[in-house]
Amino acid sequence: MTIGRRDDTTRLIGLLLGTENDWPRAFETLVRRLGAVTHRGAEHELRTERITIEPFDLRDPVRYDVVIDRLAWWYYHPREWLKKAALVDDTYLLNNPFTFQAMEKHSAYCAMIRLGFDIPDTVLVPYKNPVDHEKWAYTAATYNLPFDLDEVAGRVGYPMYMKPFDGGAWRGVSRVDDPAALHAAYDQSGQMLMHLQAAVTPFDSFARSLTIGPETKIMKFRPELPMHDRYEVAHAFLPPEAGMEILTLSRTINAFFRWEFNSCEALVSGTSVRPIDYANACPDIAITSLHYYFPWAITQLVSWSIFCAVSGRRPRVDTSSRDWFDVADDPELSWSDKLGRYALLADRYFQADEYREFCSHALASLPDLVRDWVASADFDALLVETVRTTYPAHEHDRFVAHFRGLLGLWVTDQAAA
């Protein structure tokens, strides 16, 4: 983790990984094929490295210019190493471990309510089971007021969802349609701290947006289907007003919390947007779920990581919430005006103009490189290997054909663009 820093002409991007292997191999391959990039007259060699976990001295230097973190949301040792890297060494992190630890889904709901987004009614209820702490019994007996769960649910309204305040990849999420389901879900929650959130019903579209740096892709999402079918290939499925609001919401959340790599879920009825989930420390980027959209995602991840490494972009551990609240609290601004101001704040944080200019010059060859690689036998071998490690043997042929078809469609669409 912590050997001395490399020379000034090489930029090192670290990958802090759990069980994933598909997108990391894609990332490593594309960086290697891209080669050196030139920025402001200087040539920068690019390297990637998978980070290992070991004891670290708080004063040991960190070699990485950028770290993409896919592990620290649940594994605390590397989380603390990331904090040290940011505070001591100015390492640029995707994502900010400080705000993801302190400002989980609950905090994200609160912040976006303050900014005026139409979050469904949400109530935080106390733990079902006692907290394992010696002071719990006295504190609870003295200060915890009795409450009527049915009365709270009546205020939220059926149907609703019960879900952990801090998220966790669908952990503990239950749809609650009646009092019996309410009490069953609460009894099962144990020591998980739970939200009750009103369901949005009916709705026209479930939109899931993936934002990396200043770029966002909005995808039609079908959570009721198996993972390989959840992302539908659908273009222009939203009214323009709803699409623009989701774009602004996605980038606002990331800029507000200093997140770089995050997904957002919203339910759309006509032009009405109801955000329901937008704090995902480890957003989905697997080939076997994103399929058609995977090349876009890996292109943006490579581009933003290289921009941060090469341009010397400085990490921001702290937030500037007052800038956002000043917009939210201005009675002279319409909702449309506020969205416009939020978009400007997000673009400023992400250096959107500078980034896009960087992509058009230093990374001008990357889109064609990605297209050619996705069409190659090398990529197909990665796809086949990923399918074989993801699905049972009797489903291999089916899913190889399925994903080849979707990714082949993407290649065809790029050629026609």
Key features?
417 residues; Dna Ligase, domain 1; globular; five-stranded mixed β-sheet; five-stranded antiparallel β-sheet; 17 helices; Rossmann fold; 4 domains; alpha+beta
Commentary on this structure:
By secondary structure, this protein is of the alpha+beta class. The chain has four domains: 92 residues, Rossmann fold, CATH 3.40.50; 78 residues, ATP-grasp fold, A domain (Dna Ligase, domain 1); 113 residues, no CATH class; 51 residues, no CATH class. It contains 17 helices and 14 strands. The strands form three sheets. Strands 2-3-1-4-5 form a five-stranded mixed beta sheet, with helices on both faces. The longest helix is centred in the last third of the chain and has 21 residues. This is ATP-grasp domain-containing protein. One of its GO terms (molecular function) is ATP binding.
